[in-house]
Specification:
The protein is of the alpha/beta class. The protein has a domain of 211 residues: 3-Layer(aba) Sandwich (Rossmann fold), CATH 3.40.50. It contains eleven helices and 13 strands. Strands 3-2-1-4-5-6-11 form a seven-stranded parallel sheet, with helices on both faces. Strands 7-10 form a two-stranded parallel sheet. The protein has a two-stranded parallel sheet with strand order 8-13. It is globular, with a radius of gyration of 19 Å. The mean pLDDT is 95.
Length: 342
């Protein structure tokens, strides 16, 4: 069985995916430029599963570097997670995002063309749906991304569909993530935003740790039970398991098949419910203040994950309590993230 090429493997989701793969004896070839990640994450994964990871510092836009890696390594499949991921930043710098995310993917595919690798798992996003017409969202829902980041993801899905249509040797699964939170239960790896966090849970953890004075909750007047937005939070370990399930599904996929699959729990959780659960399970106070709504936030968004269960045999198993408990274990043991080890 060949290795799995994991682009962006040092990132939040990538490190957890490699921890699961390596823990099952699969060899990972990690490619990361460390623009928003740390080599320490890979060292931590190696401590969980020794000897199962090869690490290359490279940018996915560096065609020569990718070709050299693929010539050296015996890879059978790819999990592509490398990319810039801040929605707000993508609005400010759309050209930078297109160059890194779309052109970077095209460069990766060009490198793969000269190899034998034809099994491809793509890290897509529920942001491709935009403002939902109905919930839960299944994979047939209209795609109307509201940011360059979401547009990048949808464009890449289209590139992959065109690739498989032109060369039936390819088998592709697009995984549309909802809202990953939590950390490895050991507290060894977790989410370590290099700047201002883009997601709710790091703000909650940093406020609980005293790094922030209070948590800002944007909007308390939405048409929901408690007035705060509802989202589909999924444990990052469930998300990692979803990638392993996707690789298995590609083994039995038809030549030229392209599948698009939501990875979510199918349950909506409000911002206030998440914060209150975090306080309850961890026995710690999270000071909060209510602020105005943010432009573009929708009241309710959560997944229909039926297709994942039917096509990949995967469903989320971990609870919101697990997510809060594991996120705080990581934060409390690593108060400055991976910099704690320096």
């Amino acid at each position: 069985m060949g290795s799995v090429l994991v682009t962006g493997g040092a990132g939040y989701i990538g490190s957890h995916v490699m921890a699961v793969l390596a823990g099952q004896g699969r060899r990972c070839v990690c490619v990361d430029n460390f623009s928003n990640s740390s080599p320490e994450a890979v060292a931590r994964v190696r401590s969980l599963a020794p000897g199962a990871i090869a690490l290359y510092e490279a940018d996915i836009r560096d065609l020569a570097a990718l070709r050299a890696i693929l010539a050296k390594e015996d890879c059978a499949s790819v999990i592509h997670m490398a990319g810039l991921k801040a929605v707000g930043e993508s609005v400010e710098f759309p050209e930078r995002y297109h160059d890194n995310n779309v052109r970077g993917t095209q460069c990766l595919l060009e490198a793969l063309h000269d190899s034998s690798v034809r099994r491809f798992v793509f890290s897509s996003s529920a942001t491709v749906y935009g403002i939902p017409e109905r919930v839960p969202l299944d994979e047939t829902a209209p795609t109307r991304p509201q940011s360059p980041y979401g547009e990048n993801k949808l464009e890449i899905e289209g590139v992959l569909a065109g690739l498989a249509a032109g060369d039936p040797a390819w088998r592709v699964i697009n995984l549309r993530y909802f809202n990953p939170v939590g950390a490895h239960p050991s507290g060894t790896i977790g989410e370590d935003p290099s700047d201002i966090p883009n997601n709710l849970m790091p703000f909650v953890c940093q406020t609980a740790a005293g790094r922030r004075e209070r948590l800002a909750i944007f909007g308390a007047d939405y048409p929901t039970a408690d007035g705060t937005c509802i989202r589909d939070y999924i444990h990052v370990m469930d998300l990692a398991d979803g990638h392993v399930a996707a690789l298995r599904a590609l083994d039995s996929a038809a030549d030229g098949e392209v599948m698009t699959v939501n990875l979510g729990t199918g349950r909506g959780v409000s911002v206030l419910e998440l914060v209150n659960t975090f306080e309850r399970v961890n026995g710690i106070r999270v000071p909060r203040v209510y602020s105005d709504r943010r432009p573009g936030d929708v009241p309710v968004c959560y997944a229909d994950a039926t297709r994942a269960r039917r096509t990949m045999g995967w469903s989320a198993r971990r609870t919101i309590e697990d997510m809060c408990r594991d996120a705080w274990r990581w934060q409390s043991r690593n108060p400055e993230g991976y910099a704690t080890a320096s």
